[in-house]
Amino acid sequence: MISESSSFVKGVVLGGAFCMLVTLLGHIKVGHGTKAHHHEHHHIQAPNKEDVLNLSEGERVELSKSIRVYCIILVKPKDLGHWAAVKETWSKHCDKVEFYSSENVKVFDSVALNTNDLWVMMRKAYKITYERYKDEFSWFFLAYPTTFAIIENLKYFLLKKDPSQPFYIGHTVKSGDLEYVDGEGGIVLSIESLTRLSRVLEDSDKCPEQGGMIWKLAEDKQLAICLKYTGVFAENAEDAEGKDVFNTKSVGALIKEAMSTHPQQVVDGCCSDMAITFSGLAPNHMHVMMYGVYRLRPYGHTYNDALVFLPPAGSDND
Questions:
Q1: Cys staple from 102: which of 19, 76, 153, 305, with CB 3.0 to 4.6 Å?
Q2: Which residues contact residue 186 at a Cβ distance below 8 angstroms, ignoring those fewer than 6 apart?
Q3: For residue 217, what is the DSSP state?
Q4: Domains of the chain
């Protein structure tokens, strides 16, 4: 009797393990039919400054006007301090910004999504964004409230990128066979990628709202799986020297690391001059970043940038 009971328990355990494996493979192994899709991970870089200088004045003006970025900020009531800081600082530099909240909050305007699940929030935010702004914007930047972004550097990075191509850009991370953009550093989608995403969001088999796995994946990984079904793959953004421009840590944390690993070249070992994002910032640190990036200037020094990205009309931009 004991032997039969032991065999039964072993059978249940092995059966459960097999079901777990089948479920996992069913969600990670992405593709159409039985044909395998091969994709080499890309490292994409900002445009060469010399190429920009070779453009005519008219071409520069046209380019600077043509790149318009819509910003999506995912927030929850517990993020009120960060929410206020983002609203008062860098988000003013987006051509349009909207805060997508887990619930209605009286003190700030937001699009209420009525869910606390970050993956469901992200899905709903992208779906609403596509429905409302697919004909108005070509680039879409999603960030968490602890992220600080320099939108002008993002626009410069996107300068010679074609939004009709499926771009999915940021700080990439590899998890098993899955390569995804880490949400902490911000996520950029072109209109083509957002269009493909809007379609696959309607397919519950390929892109389920709650997921069919035994354990839950983070929302940025879920996004990568859904995009992979549509032929869109994560791409790591770098400057001309190969340094990351989307950062998943704060400036302070990166400098501390550089002091340890590159004590003789702290600045060069830390960050790109064309950095687009930093993450993990407290609200007061965002105001300090705003001061350093936009307000502090050496008197009499002239910046000879080939392009000027003007703030949105009517903006109280710094």
A1: 76
A2: 141, 142, 143, 147, 149, 170, 171, 246, 276, 277, 279
A3: P
A4: 43-294 (3.90.550.50)
